[in-house]
Each structure stands twice: as structure tokens, then as C-alpha cells.
């Protein structure tokens, strides 16, 4: 997998469109966002309680986030296409896939 810088441009456009909708309909509380570096690699680890949490984080956190997601999600037509466009990293429960998921260029 190679990282395409155009992904960040797409991500920003999507955030501009979706953020007002999320703020209107979803009560989102983010704590510790000041600890996320703006321009250096980092791991953002979230213990999410619903399937909406990764989407909310991606929209509400200022920087681009490269998700790690279960590989079955990439097989769902619309969701899979979106996740490809956003440079999500597919991962299965195979040990080799888990190791390979962390062997990608940083997505900053």
C-alpha cells in the first residue's frame, strides 16, 4: 500500500461537509485532542463503543487519520470504496496481516 497525498485533500473536503452535520445530530465529547501532534506520526488508539466512533473521530480530529479496519468492511461496496479513498488499512485476524498493517508509510 502506498500513501497518496491527495487523500489528505479529500479528507479535508469531507470534514468540511460532514462536521456541521455531526455537530448538529451527534453529541461528541473529545478529551485530550491537544495531545495529538499536528504534523508528526502518532498512534491514536480509541476504545470505541459504537460503529460511529471511528467516523466521528475522523471528522472531529483536525488531522487526517489512517484507520485500521477489519478487512470484511472493504468488501462492502460503498463503505469499501470510501475506506480505500481515505487510505484505511485492511487487517484480518491473521498474524501476518497484523504485522503488515504496521509496515506502511506514515499517513501524516
Structure explained in plain terms:
This protein has helices at residues 6-25, 53-60, 77-85, 95-101, and strands spanning 68-70, 89-91. It is mostly helical and 108 residues long. The protein has one domain (6-28, 48-101). Strands 1-2 form a two-stranded parallel sheet. α1 crosses α2. The protein is globular and about 40 Å long. The model has no long low-confidence stretch (mean pLDDT 79).
Write the layout of secondary structure elements.
Blueprint: H1 6-25, H2 53-60, E1 68-70, H3 77-85, E2 89-91, H4 95-101
Parallel strand pairs: 1-2
Helix pairs in contact: 1-2
Q: What's the helix count? A: 4
DSSP strand content: 5-15%
User: Mean of residue pLDDT?
Assistant: 79
Helix content: 40-55%
- Strand/helix succession: HHEHEH
As for the number of domains, it is 1
Give the termini separation: 15 Å
Radius of gyration: 14 Å
In one word, what is the shape? Answer: globular
Largest sheet: 2 strands, parallel
Amino acid at each position: 500500500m502506498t500513501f497518496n497525498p491527495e487523500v489528505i485533500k479529500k479528507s479535508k473536503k469531507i470534514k468540511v461537509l460532514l462536521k456541521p452535520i455531526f455537530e448538529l445530530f451527534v453529541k461528541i465529547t473529545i478529551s485530550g485532542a491537544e495531545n495529538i501532534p499536528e504534523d508528526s506520526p502518532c498512534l491514536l488508539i480509541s476504545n470505541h463503543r459504537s460503529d460511529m466512533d471511528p467516523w466521528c473521530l475522523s471528522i472531529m480530529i483536525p488531522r487526517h487519520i489512517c484507520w485500521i479496519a477489519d478487512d470484511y468492511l472493504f468488501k462492502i461496496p460503498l463503505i469499501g470504496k470510501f475506506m480505500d479513498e481515505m487510505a484505511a488499512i485492511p487487517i484480518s485476524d491473521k498474524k501476518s496481516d497484523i504485522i503488515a498493517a504496521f509496515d506502511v508509510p506514515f499517513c501524516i
